[in-house]
Each structure stands twice: as structure tokens, then as C-alpha cells.
């Protein structure tokens, strides 16, 4: 029956099979390929109200490492045998909802797979004419929302504040720094290596950037923020959080957005030894989850879009090739600091 | 000239000499007698606007250990050679201010000495007919103010909150627990040993008290606070802070009042490893200094006095004998947990 072999054996047409990455075991420390199974499943079919999406780009986020753990958190852990949770942007290939039609571009929690079926109400629209699709996973997606509400609401940014941002060029940090600058504040970044520090200043408009790999962060912050830090937006935790705590201004707000330096720990989280600076400086440290601001995403998206259109808000994505099979290695670039800007995995063209 | 010896040799009349305890060197770890010099100085004389006070009781507070360090804090460190800073209550023996007359009882920063000269505007009145003098260093003094503003303002106490208080029977904790109960909240204490735990429940009205010396604090808090902790008032830091953080309710407020478990550390402060619970639970951790509420002390004092008069607010002081020479040993009872209630040193009758 040779006539069936229109493609070489072992290469099924992409349209009828779905490559998936499932969590196979819970990582201890850094996640490895052994913690996942790479499977090929039949193409899923949408039910009423659902949409079939061809996933084009996946968002790779530090929080994903936490989702692999069993511990109770703000969302349930990914179960063993489940497709790894991930946000993605893709193209509608089949719709059983009046809200979307084939050819539309959408953002949603697609998971690490080539095709996903999602309920229409869990999807938002992406417009590639306004910004490239990967930006809808960054500045115009969750990282952008996180930056906006974390800085303005949780951080309660005020005129004249001195703002310090760790992970200064990362997906969230690059937006935090720019919003603070747009609001007229003095902004100091913290990033790893001269290239990122240069980018922070030249591309994102930070007043200065501390290279934590080469400099004494505590001392540099003291020099750069002689009146203390009013808002510290923390993406990293660990020693850098302590260095910032040592330099708070009175009434400071420490926004806890992430702790990327601690997510792969096998020896226990490092708590901030300098937390009593909160007492001395009548300061507060506050955590948040961007989902709580869902009702106000529209407000943030409108502001971001305007700033982008006005050329005030730039964005940088690091789009890596390799498809879903490269998921683990690409994700781990976040923890070694190899990525530059919002890390995105290209799934397919 | 035997006629001068109306008292036995070596025992000068108390009215003409002033016994003082001065900081001689900065302690490393627990303070010892060697860190102080015990001196006898001439009786000080008040200038215009000043008052000479016979110190009767001294307040011994955990914060005093911090004042002995050189590090920058919310007030300057005690300088070497300076009389050790302390709050005290005493009797006016000579006044060069119209605000006070001999025989009045006053509270102020007298220092660790038998007689002190202070400006009248730095003194407040104590009424021994309303409450015994030591209570003016506790529930009616700084610890009471600290409890009131820390719980109600910083902790933003709300109806129906579940409140947890460490150092539950201490100077501040005993007041925090009772105010929370007066406000109708569920209140769980944490204290060391069965006696203090019994006192927390029987005398101060806590719903329950965890004995951190005998019980798994994290697990007991989970059992006692099945819906999580809304306000955690922390006086101790260390592992107990971590246990509380592991049990926060969503939107919790962690009030950082002190960290007595860490004040004598020689190996560095232990930071709260579970601080990411602030993120998961959208919670905040906030420090404060009671002095910032000075303009509202009257409000708090009025409320406390009413509750005491109504029998709703009890207070317990631990009055130790020994005079100023016993300062160091008595202070250290705070750190071993030997004291029960507000620790006060009786200076003289």
C-alpha cells in the first residue's frame, strides 16, 4: 500500500498530530528532560464554545518552575502526566464559538504543545499589526500587566520616588523600569553582566544599572540612591533582596513579584536577613498575583498600547527556536540569566 | 571629724550621690556586666525648664539590646561612656518648670541611673491612683501604645479577623491579644512553656496558646487557624515567624514589632525563609516605630484607661529587685524568656 506514503515514513503530516510535553516527575533543583515525557497525540477537536489553536509561540516564565512543585500555591500544581502549563499565542484553526474565526490570533493558557483546545472565554485577541505576536506574551501580556499593577498599585508609586528594579531587563522588569520613568521617577536597575546593564540604560531608559555579577550591590545602591529606595520591585530574591532592604528610605514599599534566584533551591529558600529594615524604616513588603487585577487588565492594556504607540515604551523579546521539544533547555536559560528580555519559545511557523 | 559619719562609712546618703550604669563597650552576642561601668556620680541639678527625678522603676525592653549596637537604626546608638538609655518612672524631687512640682510622678527617658534631670516637655504624668507605677511603663506606656497602633493601624484589624500574637504574654503581646479580643476577634497566642500559655488563656483571654518550646508551631497554627491567619503580630522573628508565614490567610497583614529571638545573634539574622507566602497570599509585612504615632498617644491612652477601668484589659508586670546594679542580669531575662509579663527593674523605694 505504497500510495499512502506521500510523506517519508515516520513524519506524519503536522496537521493531524499534536506534539506535547507532559510533566513526568517532579524536579528536584533544576528541571531536566528526564522530568518530562515528549509525546505525540492525536489532534484534539473543539467542542461547542471551544476553539482549536495552532500554537505559534510559548511564554517561558520563572513561575513555571514553581508550578512543577507539589506545594500548595496560588494555582494548583501541574499534575504528573498532564501537559505542562504555559501561556501561548497562536492562530485559530477551527472555531466552535462565534467569538473567534479561523485566522484570528489569540492568547491563552495553551500548554506546552503544538495544538490546544480552549474555551473561547479563556482567550484574548492578539493583533499582529499593532505588535509582533511574541510581544503579546510580554509587554502586552501577563508580564506587562504584572509590571503595571505591581508598580502602580502594590508599589503605590508616588511622584519623586526613587525606584529600584531587579531583573531590570527581564520580561516584567523592563516594563516596570519604563513605567517608572514615564511617571517621572528616578529608576535604577539591577541586572547581570555589562550587556544587560547597557541595555537597561540605553534601551529602557534606566538612570543607572548595577551589574550584580561584578559589583557590590549594597554599596552601589547606597551610592546611586543617597536618599534611599522608595519602591523596590523584586524579581529575584536572595542576596539582592537583602542589598535592597539595606537601602530603604523611610516608608518604602518592597514589591515581591518573584524570587528567581531561589526557585531551583535544594537547600531551602534564603529568607531576607535584613527584613528588620522594614521596622527601622516603617516600610512594607507586599506580594501580589496579577490575576487579582483581571477586572482592570483593560485599563493597563490601554495605557501600555498608548505608550508603545507614542514610542515611550519599548519591548524586547528573546525568541528561541526549537519547538516544544526544546522546552526544558529553553526554560532553564531564565535561571542562568542567558536570555535577554522576555523569553519566548517559537513552536512552529 | 567623726561627727560627719552619721551613716556607716562607704554608704553615702542616697540623696547626694547618683548611681549610674554606663555603656563601656559594645556587646557581641549577649550583653554582660563587662560591657558596662557602674559608677557613682554627684547628684545632678536641674536648669531652667528642667526637673530632677528620683527614678523608682526602669522599663527593660528587648529594643535596648539594639541600642547598644553601633548600627544605624531608628534612633542613634547609645554612645560609649554614656548612661545606658532606658525609660523610667519616678518622683519629682526638684522642679524648675511650672509643669511639675515635687511629689509628682512622671515617665520619661531617665536612663539607667538613680536620679535623672530631664526637660519638662519630655515627661508625661503617671497617676499611681489609677494604676501602679510599673504599669505606666507597660500597658499605659510605650508597650501599650505599641500594641494599640501596631494592631489597629499597621495590622489594620478588621471584624472577624483571626489574630496570632507571638510573645503572647510579654509587655506588648499581652496588650495586643486583649485588644484583639475586645474587638471580637479570634486570638491565638504563642509563648514559651505551660505557665505562660495558661496565663495567656486564663488571664488575657486568648482563645488558645501554642507552647513553642513543646509543640510544632506550624502544625498547631494550622489546626487552630483552619482559615489562615489574618493578622500576625510578631515580636520574636526566627522560626516562629516562618511558622506563621506558612499559615497566612489571603490578604494577611504581618506586623513586624520585634525579633527578640535574633537580637543577640553572632551569626547574622535569620531571615524569614517563607516570605514568598506574602506573594502566594497577596499579603504584606510591615514594620513600624511607635514614636511615629506620638500625636495620637492620647487617643490610645484614653481607650486603654477605659478598658482597664471596665475590667476588660488586664496587665501583668514582672518587677525585679536589685537596683541599677542588677540592670544587665535583669535585662537578659527577656532573652531567656524568664520574665513573665512586662519586665520592670525596681531602682529604689
Structural description of this entry:
- Two copies of one chain form a homodimer.
- By secondary structure, chain A is of the alpha/beta class.
- The first copy, chain A, has nine helices and 15 strands.
- Chain A has helices at residues 63-67, 142-154, 173-182, 194-202, 217-224, 238-245, 277-280, 297-309, 327-336, and strands at 17-23, 36-42, 50-59, 88-95, 105-108, 115-119, 124-125, 162-166, 186-191, 208-211, 229-234, 248-256, 284-287, 317-320, 342-346.
- Chains A and B meet through helix 7 and strand 13 of A and helix 7 and strand 13 of B.
- Strand 13 (284-287) of chain A pairs antiparallel with strand 13 of chain B, so a sheet runs across the interface.
How are the elements arranged and paired?
The structure is a homodimer of 349-residue chains.
Chain A: E1 17-23, E2 36-42, E3 50-59, H1 63-67, E4 88-95, E5 105-108, E6 115-119, E7 124-125, H2 142-154, E8 162-166, H3 173-182, E9 186-191, H4 194-202, E10 208-211, H5 217-224, E11 229-234, H6 238-245, E12 248-256, H7 277-280, E13 284-287, H8 297-309, E14 317-320, H9 327-336, E15 342-346
Helix pairs in contact in A: 2-3, 2-8, 5-6
